[in-house]
Amino acid sequence: MKSWLRNTSLPAGRAVGAALVLLLLWGWSRPATAQSSSAECRLSISGQVLDEHDGSVLEFSTLYIHDTGKGASADAEGRFQLTGLCPGTYHITVSHIGCKPLDRTLQLTSDSSFVFRLEHHAELLQEVVISTRPVPIAPVQTEVTLTGRTLQETRGQALGEALTRLPGVSVLQTGPTIFKPVIQGLYGNRIQLINNGVRLESQRWGTEHAPEIDPFLANELKVVKGASAVRYGPEAVGGAIVVNPPTLPTEAGLHGEANLIGFSNSRGGAASASLEGGLNRLEGFGWRIQGSGKRTGDWRAPTYLLSNTGVKELNLTAAAGYQHDRWGVDVYASRFSTELGILRSAHIGNLTDLQDALESGTPRYIAPFTYAIANPRQRVAHLLTKARAYYQSEHSGKWSLQYGGQYNNRREFDIRRGDRSDRPALFMQLATHTLDLNWEQERHAHWRHAAGLTGTLQHNRNRSLITGTLPLVPDFLTRSVGAYWIERYVRDRWELEAGLRGDYRWQQVLTFARSAGSYTADSLIRPVYHLKSLSGSVGAVYHVDEGVVLQSQLGLASRMPTMNELYSQGLHHGTASLERGPAIYTADPAVGVNPDTVFRNEQAYKWINTLTYKRPRLSGELSAYFQYIPGFIFLQPQGTELTIRGAFPVFHYQQTDARLLGADLNVTYNLTSRLVLTGQGAVVRARDLLRRDFLPWIPADRIGGSLTYQWPQLRQLRNLYLSVGTSHVRQQTRVPTNREHLNFGLETPPTVLDFAAPPPAYTLWRLDAGTTLPLGPHQLGVTVSVTNLLNTRYRDYLNRLRYYADDTGRNLTIRLHYSF
């Protein structure tokens, strides 16, 4: 068993089989007359869902029990019933179109009845109630969500890694610990992340800068695939990722949950715990505190260790709020901190070693396993605070005012000479203040309106006196304002939506620039930029029949060039590469650089169409999209360069006109009441229209599926399931060709515009199993997952460290989840 956990060649089934046997022995060894035996799992809950303000019926509401995966829909009178439940504690979410979801913790000892009251009109922008149709209208935007059991199976993973369970989402990876989400081929500055209603502001431009978000705090991860600039800001060219925590409780009581997770690969683990409650003397008040931690050692490829890839992470959050009939306030604070090791073999001393690394099948540096994290490494801390107040009136709609404060501290450590290794080579501090005023109103029977104003103040500061190096990205000060308007019209089977947004950005930069043709920074410049962008979208939803929905959206998003794209100059430690932007070269330091003469705005036009089909046995979603992006900014390989720090690949930011098109597919078929088959697939085609070539760093075609068998009750084991899944990724053959005479500095330059040919196709298998065990009046959830089940050697095209090492090998993960 121990050698299997270390990814040797013993059969994969032994450890998984042992874990399943232990679960079965637990179930069969308990007396059949225990409190939660199958004979007693016949309890039910029933009741009605009403409007919180006027007591009216909320017909066709939905109820979902997170602990069991069971759900139900209320009828036209708002009445519901859930049967086949065991005694214990359950976490339930009640939702209705146009209402804020309600989360409740129920203690069930006998048949019980409840009345749930929801706050109506709280989410007008996302969904609308059509009283003449029993089928809820879907959002105009194409959205996919990760919730329930699937979300629980990702606990302990990074945010980006967890999102790969969704169709159309992949990751730009830097080794085994850094995962950056990619939505339909786009990532980084083109993806907006929303953390508890606040736009995440961090150094997200780096391809190895993972989102500073703790996935443990979420009970729903949502990916919006359409161009979402009107709702989320001009950066949402490729879509948005929304992290939603549970709603705060509004009733007295103390509830909580705990998670404990162990990994065989990296010999690591993670843990989280949360407590929440309310006050007897103040109905409507709720609070929550939550914390999590993670510690891993060096990860392992199938045949060798990946030295210096450990992780340390510690996160804390606290929230409190009060809800009255028409108004409410809430506050939130979180601190995310992590330390990540970067693969030691990615830092090369000379061009000969770089050539050897590209041609070798194993890393040039392999050390014994350790939990210690040495240079090169990253140390990142992110503090987020939020305060929000809202007021709702029947005549003037709902008004909300929200302040968000964020402070991002990023330090990157390099392998430096002498006693300077303890000094960061990159030290950036980013402070951001945002203020959002939003208004929503439902007027008449068919019209919904929404508008808002946003303001941002941001300051990026480099601690050059500490690092003793030239900053990779310069100091800058940004002031920006934006305004948007959205109109919705709903009638019968149709829903139409149109929106418009304008943004203005004032930005001043303080940096050193190079004279044309020079490799030394010799001119101090302080240019001031005035940037503008205009975004818009139109969309429609048509209900063909109950359970069959067509969605179509055409969006324009105008993204302004960022400071890293204009001014990057130097070694990017996390990717072990040199990156340079065009604005660092100037012959007139008194004037600086006009960004309009260097990079123009990206103008992204995206048309996405989605067909959703839901039937009792078969359900699925097919999305097809076309995106044209004049002014697309990307990193182009330029060759290699030998510096005082070593030999590194060189990348330059360049601009072209791009075209992306593709499709995502997700299908679920119930073969029987217990046997479920799922399938997913994604295809992206991307072209550089000006150079008549392919774009780099585009996900390869991929397809996957799973077969799951479920037992609702097996003596003491509730909701037992066993699932086997596979994913196949084709070789990315659509890559730029090396038609130019670039200085790669290698004896055998590659035939593609890269430092190595794309890796071959690969197929991975995974195994998942889980159940819920009775533990007194509460319950313990247990899941077992094995990724890369066959310990396959592979390298992914989107892994920036694929030049130096294989991806990770087999990993057994055991998760314990306790709620009360």
UniProtKB/TrEMBL annotation:
For this chain, one GO molecular function annotation is:
siderophore uptake transmembrane transporter activity
Q: SUPFAM superfamilies of this UniProt entry?
A: Carboxypeptidase regulatory domain-like, Porins
A Gene Ontology cellular-component term: cell outer membrane
Lineage: superkingdom: Bacteria
Q: What is this protein's name?
A: Iron complex outermembrane recepter protein
Q: What are the subcellular locations of this protein?
A: Cell outer membrane
Q: Pfam families given for it?
A: CarbopepD_reg_2 (PF13715), Plug (PF07715)
What is its membrane topology?
Answer: Multi-pass membrane protein
UniProt keyword list: Cell outer membrane, Membrane, Signal, Transmembrane, Transmembrane beta strand, Transport
Query: Which InterPro entries is this protein grouped with?
Result: Beta-barrel_TonB_sf, CarboxyPept-like_regulatory, Plug_dom, Plug_dom_sf, TonB-dep_rcpt-like
The TonB-dependent receptor plug domain, residue ranges: 145-240
Organism of origin: Catalinimonas alkaloidigena
Gene Ontology terms: biological process: siderophore transmembrane transport
